[in-house]
Design brief:
Helices cover 38% and strands 11% of the residues. It is α/β, with parallel strands linked by helices. It folds into three domains: 255 residues, Rossmann fold, CATH 3.40.50.720; 239 residues, NAD(P)-binding Rossmann-like Domain (Rossmann fold, 3-Layer(aba) Sandwich); 35 residues, no CATH class. It contains 23 helices and 17 strands. A six-stranded parallel β-sheet has the order 5-2-1-6-7-8, with helices on both faces. Strands 13-12-11-14-16-17 form a six-stranded parallel β-sheet. The chain starts with 29 loop residues before the first helix and ends in a 5-residue tail after the last strand. The longest helix is centred in the middle third of the chain and has 32 residues. The structure holds nicotinamide-adenine-dinucleotide and uridine-5'-diphosphate-glucose (UPG).
Amino acid sequence: MSLPRPDAEAPLPSFSFLDNHLVRSPPSSQSVASSAASPGTASPDAWIAKSWTRGTPDTSPPSSGSGSPNLKPSQQPNDAGPLCMKESLNLAQDASYVKSICFVGAGFVGAAGGPTAAVIAYHNPHILVHVVDLNEHRVAAWNSRHLPIHEEGLLKVVRTARDGTVDTTVTLPGLGRPVQLEARQPNLVFSTRVVEAISGAQIIFICVNTPTKTHGLGAGSMADVSAIESATRTVAKHARGSIIVEKSTVPCGTARMIQDILHYHRPETRFEVLSSPEFLAEGTAVRDLMHPDRILIGSAQTRSGRRAASVLRDVYAAWVPDERIVTVNTFSSELAKLVANAMLAQRISSINAVSAMCEEIGLGADVEDVGLAIGKDNRLGPMFLRAGVGFGGSCFEKDILSLAYLANELHLEVVAEYWLSILRINEYQRQRFANNVVRGLNGSLRGKKIAVLGFAFKDGTNDTRNSIAVHIIRDLVEEVPREIAVFDPGCAIDDILEEARNAKMDQDLLERITICSGWRDAVRGASAVCILTPWKHFQGYQAMGPKRAAQGTSKPTKGSLSLNLCEDRLTEMKVMALEDLVRQENSLPEDPLERLKPLAPCPSECLQCGVDNVRGCDGDAVNWAEVAGMMQEPRLVFDGRNVVDAVELERLGFRVRGVGKGP
Ligand SMILES: NC(=O)c1ccc[n+]([C@@H]2O[C@H](COP(=O)([O-])OP(=O)(O)OC[C@H]3O[C@@H](n4cnc5c(N)ncnc54)[C@H](O)[C@@H]3O)[C@@H](O)[C@H]2O)c1
Ligand SMILES: O=c1ccn([C@@H]2O[C@H](COP(=O)(O)OP(=O)(O)O[C@H]3O[C@H](CO)[C@@H](O)[C@H](O)[C@H]3O)[C@@H](O)[C@H]2O)c(=O)[nH]1
């Protein structure tokens, strides 16, 4: 191996990594060395496992190219050579160093691919943000008016950055002066042009899927990082020496694996690998991204690692207060993400365990009262204490399994057991619920219809992956009911069907499940209603509140006078504040400043328009008085999310069984 390679690419002009002396910590083990020397022989899984089984980990993943343990000194990349043009990085230049960011993976929620990329682009209009994915249908959806995911406020953010805005001038009576907002140029691109986007970017976020392995070593517990491996290989081949950010949730040690792959393919090129896990929750993605509790950045504890972290920090600093940006080492960052999810899930399992006790005590103990009481303790706080049928979704279970796998690899079996007990309670809770339904119907569902309200793993999202509902439906359908009729106000019928099919039920049982496009069809003739997702729609139409103000009925005064704020260009944060002001004064809709460009109309037969209309429809709220007349006696409601007003429903003639409420 000689350096530099003839096809070595030119360094990026104003960013250099100078830590030649801070080379990879010795090779102690064959692990790093072997993969650098014998490509393809060490799998990433093996790599990660090895990096943890040899004792105290080196917490500073090296810069690739900062020295390979297998190379003689004379072969080490030379920091003083052409790859390193500057002696020191002028931090003041960092912000301007980043001209283009690439996100690899525009996933369902696209931990980053979609919402995070959109919000970064929104707040950094001077940076071109390119989101690439191999899935062309997904990309097409991101480029349309029907985004592949349903998140409040996301379409507006995407439209602003993806399509650009028009010039607008706003005059507000209370503001005393007109404000002119210049048109924004588009700076968010969704495409399948992976190579082009990667090669033009100074920062590359890897946000591909990391599901639990389904076969081979570690099946059912270890995270499958093959998509990360594959994306990294593409990055290694086409990137020009840049900052690589692992955004996906990954096992500890993955940053090192990424470094290794990069180094193998491009030993002469400088890369710095950062960990910056995403903490957004589905359903509140835009809010979480706009106002994050924290942005976590893990880097190598080297000068170049810290510099790379500082470049990323600058991107977030466009809208995130400095004190909310936390920098740590890479391993801590990777571990913190898994632990955050495990501890959130642990709170849910704890309160669900309490709910079982409340039900058995039978003296009126109510889990909601318990949650309220303990949540008032500042040390505990009120969040994530809602008892229910258990947690679902694509993250908690897989991340707890990954954490437990790591603990086992470290021979900490008791610790692994501790984390796994969170999942056991979760499973126990949903089985308990299904059993309660069957018992409530005299031990048999034969000949009966059961209505299931809610299929998404939580409200506010159309994500059906690993929904609790599918497990409960599978348990119920085993009782061979006449029909299980499912309705969810946010999910597409096809997505529900696909998830049900993935649950591998017998065809005969699968045929007993029908998916309805409205709640009336679901509850008509049902012996029991099960509420599995806490959609507000199920609380009853009173709970939905007044309908949204009619859109576009009143407008801000558009400008005769104009004050050009060009030299003090408004940040998008300030524009948002201005929008809030306009909304307050005029109760205006989504785009109160009328900045957005009009969207091209869809063809009249567009199916997605129909789905979106259903989602946005407040009139979809369940009218329980009407339900009472449509159901079979004794009108059982199993409220798996404690969303209905039980007293009110009992007044209407229902028998309500909530979670964690004594008889
Ligand atoms: N879903 C969430 O709310 C959330 C939140 C925080 C973190 N995360 C983490 O983010 C990661 C992604 O999650 P997701 O929900 O977006 O997953 P996803 O499965 O919905 O999407 C992953 C996307 O990556 C694409 N992809 C895979 N390999 C690729 C490659 N080589 N090149 C280009 N595209 C490629 C796939 O086509 C897919 O569209 C996971 O690690 C997850 O744990 C998710
Ligand atoms: O008090 C509660 C809170 C939540 N849930 C359930 O828990 C699951 C997960 O909910 P939530 O955490 O809100 O949604 P996710 O989108 O799965 O977000 C989690 O997983 C993401 C992916 O890693 C992280 O980024 C987020 O911080 C973390 O909250 C859902 O089924 C909820 O219904 C409860 O049962 N009770």
